[in-house]
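#structure-requests
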Amino acid sequence: MEGERVEDLDRRYIWHPFTPMRQWLEEEPLVVVEGEGVKLRDSRGRWYYDGNSSLWVNVHGHRRPEIDAAIREQLGRIAHSTALGLASVPATHLAERLVALAPPGLSRVFYSDNGSTAVEIALKIAFQYWTFRGKPEKKIFLKLQNAYHGDTLGAVSVGGIELFHAAFGPLLFETLTAPSPYCYRCPLDFPPEARPSRGEAGCGLRCAAEFERLVEENADRLAAAIVEPVVQAAGGIITMPPGYLRRVWEACRRHGVLFIADEVATGFGRTGKMFACQHEGVAPDLLCVAKGLTGGYLPLAATLVREEVFQAFLGEEGEFRTFYHGHSYTANQLGCAAALASLDLFQRDRVLEALPRKADLVARHLGLLEGFPGVGEVRQRGLMVGIEVVRERAKKEPFPPGWRVGYRVCRRARELGLITRPLGDVVVFMPPLASTEEELSEMAEILVQAVKETLGELGAR
């Protein structure tokens, strides 16, 4: 049987990302062989809901005829030509579309391959910008606790998840760190009984105030601050309290610090707007996008830049103001064609207009977990959901890491027909935006059942 052969070959040859390989080799791998709509089929013929959008990238569903056709049409012309010194039709049209959709002021598009490289490019541009402006001392970056911006060394340097990033400490450059707006586990010095909920009365957004202080006191050496707008995704679907994003952006504007918005996870409708910055009228100096850019079809990323920043890289011959960065597959024509088709579907299917109703439906279903033993908090923005499970709800006591409770919840969900993936003991639910209300209801019901059954078996309180 071909599926069994693939399983054997996988165990023998493949090293999977972010996967404990000892456990992987001891378990039966799930081999995906087909996708249709918002479902995936494995090599044994069973169908599952794609409850994490194939790692947060799929927007319109699998095998979407319009995107398939756009890729085939482009294949009839050319699959790829370099962007180093050459232009192409789909890359040019896509850049025009992205600038029109993005927050105001962003006027230039630098293409790359994935979210990590989009962030790496933003960091290098910000650093070099201040050198060209005659302020080489502005070379430090401000990041948030619980931040994740990718896995290249620059992106890891501005990351804030110890589990992912601590091992590479000796390789990383200097940064400053602001407290995460993680209201459920506030990093500031509130005693537990006095901590307000979700940044409400009594808090004063002290995390934002600390960010503001760091910007003001270090403005003369800060090149940029980097933030995932509205939701810290890989940090555990940490949803920012209202007003936080605008305050930290305004602090950067006041003190001459560039603001980088990492919308790799939050862009293209995930939070209910095309870009999460738009919830609070934030216009960053640099914007990083990837994941949903091609609708989940092909690896493509972009870093959008304000005109003022771009102009600093223009100079006479001999000044060497060129941005010396690029990739073999920069502005890949197949990827750009897929992205253009995806943006067409946003308009044709009125994707953004349908999202509030879909998000409300998911919230109503997940409301069944409110107060359930072991459910610490359900966090949601648009169709980005994180369910934090704990051993004792009243004390917010986590489970021992070795219990792998988030994984066990997701494993139970898979048995029930839903594929998703945890972030530690935060169970993530991020379905394709194209999911119908009926499909979302079925997925949410499976998720609720998996959470309740797993926590019940473990005796969570």
